């Protein structure tokens, strides 16, 4: 495992990028403004792209340079631009149907991160990689997945929910770059292009929702049933 045999400089760089990505997930969790979500998601995607390039450099995985470029392009530019077009067209600036306030969401997010840290320590002990960056990678990956699920649960706007889904996927992608950087290139490309299809379908769904249900709240989907 690459994470268990890294020089100190590489470990510090990977740790910084992973922690900053997690902090940006908390920025999204603690904000009501949809454009803040987009900026934080784009910045998080760029950090993951830099991480991919760094893993490719230190691990000698040349295919990760291509993944880094595609991640920066699609996750950091194209996806935020596509979602921003939907936000501007629908004239929706902020989350209006939240089930929990941002402050309470941040507290729960912190508890979920603590839970992820405990689980990651146990997993690292079983795998024999305690004291390495693998513990941090597992913690950040699980934390971002849990924060993504939390956003799906407590945010009402359809746009917020799709961003929660993207945060969840970013966590998986970030963890895989550190823990299993040798993952086949084809699988990573399929994941990237699948996201484009998901966001494109989401844009069509939200416009249809606004036109026929008169709202962008995901709960209004019930009105479209039958």
Automatic annotation (TrEMBL):
Signal peptide: none annotated. It is a multi-pass membrane protein. Keywords: Cell membrane, Membrane, Transmembrane, Transmembrane helix. The chain crosses the membrane at residues 12-30, 37-58, 64-84, 105-125, 131-150, 162-180, 186-210. One of its GO terms (cellular component) is plasma membrane. Its main location: membrane. It is found in: Cell membrane. InterPro entries: HyfE-like. PANTHER family: HYDROGENASE-4 COMPONENT E. This is Hydrogenase. It comes from Candidimonas nitroreducens.
